[in-house]
Amino acid sequence: MFITAQFDSGNIEVIEANEPSAIQLAIRKDNQSDFYQWFHFKLYAEPGVEHVMTITNAGQSAYPDGWKDYSALASYDRETWFRVPTEYNGKELVIRHSPDQESVYYAYFTPYSYERHMDLIQWTQQSIECDHVLLGPTLDGRDMNLLIVGEPADHKAKIWVTARQHPGESMAEWFIEGFLSRLLDDEDGAARRLLETCVFYIVPNMNPDGSVRGHLRTNAAGVNLNREWAEPSLEKSPEVYYVLNAMQQTGVDFYLDVHGDEALPYNFLAGCEGVPSYNDKTHQIGEQFKQVLLSITPEFQTEYGYEIDKPGEANLTVASNAVSERFNCLAFTLEMPFKDNANLPDVDFGWSANRSQQFGADVLSAIYGIANSLRS
Ligand SMILES: [Zn+2]
């Protein structure tokens, strides 16, 4: 038996791995931070034998509620990820699995690899509608990518979409892949019409360093990027610094920041009701956006979500709030589940990469539904 996490987005510490029935593991903390929850490792197994893998420090992780009714993901071929029996006793997370094959990968959610990220960027660059812009280097020396889709023009609505500020929320980049597949399809009528009136500015991965390092929530310096939007710095949070500067140059009419939520088994939007500049017009377009999305897909709902901020009480270090206030625009944090959509459960796969991609494509339709209101 052997367990390793020495690969892109790997994260696990092996405490003991002598008997398949008593494997003891722990999740590593994000570098220079106390956050942890993301795990991703490979097991060399005895096929047909039940392996009991206990994550001993699950109870002190960033979001213990995330383990309730949660099932871990497993894959033999690193393409199809399925759920395996998982229990949480309030302290430890216990994964039980009898692998069919000699080796198997386990993860908190379907990983979105850095190789795939690089493929995505080069693929989009092949489109005549898409410009690929280097924003600058990260702390680990990776490149921050911005994709501009559509010909910029003053009269067009500027739509910004960012994903994966929290690197463990890999569903956010699967979402972006679905969103871009639709937006760059030159036979998609809605996408073509949208590009006549809108320009899209898309950052598929806000936190490449954290993604490769196997972090849950922070960048290479242990900084939670979604608390840096009031005063980002090149030293601590260059990722946000670059994006905010680029936004300043283009302006923003609509902003979507894509995340995953550990605890709630639903897709939902968190709005900017608490920012000082929030007004009736912003509210109306926001409600219209939700109604269109509700009419398109049962994967979206508005019953469950975060508590709505009281007027003036928004945290202006959070991306969606900071952008809404600075640019006086509609902005949402979009959350997808790690677990499943409880309104439409799937016991084999739960919420998945494919469903995240489809949801991304559906959100593009919802933007089509409100595009004419954005600049009127
Ligand atoms: Zn998040």
UniProtKB/TrEMBL annotation:
SUPFAM superfamilies linked to this entry: Zn-dependent exopeptidases
Cofactors demanded by this protein: Zn(2+)
Species the sequence originates in: Pseudidiomarina maritima
Record PROSITE patterns: PEPTIDASE_M14 (PS52035)
Coiled coil, from the record: none
Family: Belongs to the peptidase M14 family.
Classification via InterPro entries: Cytosolic_carboxypeptidase, Pepdidase_M14_N, Peptidase_M14
GO biological process: proteolysis
The name this protein goes by in its record: Murein tripeptide amidase MpaA
Pfam families, per database record: Pepdidase_M14_N, Peptidase_M14
GO MF: metallocarboxypeptidase activity; zinc ion binding
Residues of the Peptidase M14 domain: 110-374
Active-site residues, as the UniProt record annotates them: E335
